[in-house]
Amino acid sequence: MHSCCLRQLGRVDYPAALQLQQQLAADRKQGLIPDQLLLLEHPHVITLGRNGHMENLLAGDDILARAGIAFYPTDRGGDVTYHGPGQLVGYPILDLRDWQRDVGAYVRAVEETIIVTLAEYGIEAGRIPKLTGVWVGERKIAAIGVHLSRWVTSHGFALNVSTDLSYFQYIVPCGLTRPVTSMAALGVRASLDEVGARLAVHFARIFDREMEN
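User: That's the sequence. What structure does it adopt?
Assistant: Structure tokens below.
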């Protein structure tokens, strides 16, 4: 069984987290480090994926500045998304050559990790055919956007734990005109640390990794 280093980083600015991912991914490609799972939260930020559409960003620079929201284009898949306090963000740095060389299987496994984590809290979540992410009914509770380079993953997922959902008003989340939800909105009170710890256990099982701190 391959090892995976769990890094629970607390609140990290988006550019710092991106730089860390890039360094860890470079080290992983060279075999200098084992797989990594970064768990953290970001200050208010909106990011745009490499195939995203600017029209899905519904606010100009001045409005975003007044709301205290940063904006960054990025190289992940997917469209536009919001990150902020109360949202558990996960960045797996995995070498898929040690798992499955299948991007679709990887995304489905990330979704499954979130689905079984939510089930522990009594939340029945699932998938919607042809749409990436995790859903509770018609409401999106977790977004996924990944990047692969030489089979090493970066970027990842964002699970709304106690996120202030009003901040999604500034975007068309992932380019879809569908509502969003959170664990808190569904009546579940849980800390990011607690949810992250439970999620890490399921991540290790689903990806057949031995988690190390």
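The first strand starts at residue 2 and ends at 11.
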